[in-house]
């Protein structure tokens, strides 16, 4: 039986490994693999296959509507008429809103984004007999494993 678990890189991982050795698991049957966590900055523009949930047009669309209505109303008194001025106002409002949101996103994403909460930093793989499986599971959960999975051979 193999038991896979994930841990933060913490002293509890070392204690869990020593407790596993105390119950008879050989050190050759315990594998600790460190993970490389993503620390690159987010991309601003979404693609068809990836979206980060940040919208750049959530401010731009209402501003485009407001500017279109206001400039179309004023356009009745101006030379080009309400249609042209409404379109000019819509484009101008959209651009202003887009730039405001873009500046906000760029300022808040200057820091490198990490996942919120706890992150898995080490995968611990334990080869053991099915008779020791419950004890190994108990030890791993007691020492703050973030996740656990069993594979029976």
Q: What is the number of independent domains?
A: 2
Quaternary organisation of the protein chains:
single chain
Helix residue percentage: 40-55%
Q: Strand order, main sheet: write it out.
A: 2-3-1-4
Distance between the termini: 6 Å
- Report mean pLDDT, rounded to a whole number: 86
From the helix content, strand content and strand pairing, which structural class follows? alpha+beta
Overall outline: rod-shaped
The low-confidence parts are none
Alpha carbon gyration radius: 28 Å
Could you characterize what this model shows?
This protein is rod-shaped. The protein has helices at residues 11-22, 60-75, 82-108, 133-142, and strands at 2-7, 30-34, 122-127, 147-151. Helix content is 42%, strand content 14%. It folds into two domains: 2-35 and 120-151, Alpha-Beta Plaits; 60-108, no CATH class. The protein has 153 residues and is α+β, with helices and mostly antiparallel strands.
Outline the secondary-structure elements.
Elements: E1 2-7, H1 11-22, E2 30-34, H2 60-75, H3 82-108, E3 122-127, H4 133-142, E4 147-151
Antiparallel strand pairs: 1-3, 1-4, 2-3
Helix pairs in contact: 1-4, 2-3
Keywords: Membrane, Transmembrane, Transmembrane helix
Organism: Guptibacillus hwajinpoensis
Protein name: Membrane protein
């Amino acid at each position: 039986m193999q038991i896979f678990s994930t841990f933060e890189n913490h002293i509890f991982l070392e204690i869990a490994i020593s407790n596993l050795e105390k119950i008879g698991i050989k050190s050759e049957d315990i594998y600790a693999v460190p993970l490389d966590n993503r620390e690159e900055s987010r991309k601003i523009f979404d693609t068809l296959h990836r979206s980060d949930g940040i919208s750049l047009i959530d401010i731009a669309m209402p501003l485009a509507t407001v500017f279109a209505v206001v400039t179309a109303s004023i356009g009745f008194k101006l030379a080009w008429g309400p249609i042209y001025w409404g379109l000019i106002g819509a484009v101008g409002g959209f651009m202003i809103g887009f730039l405001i949101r873009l500046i906000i996103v760029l300022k808040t994403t200057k820091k490198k984004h990490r996942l919120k909460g706890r992150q898995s930093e080490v995968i611990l793989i334990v080869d053991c007999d099915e008779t020791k499986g419950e004890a190994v599971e108990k030890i791993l959960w007691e020492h703050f494993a973030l996740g656990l999975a069993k594979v029976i051979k």
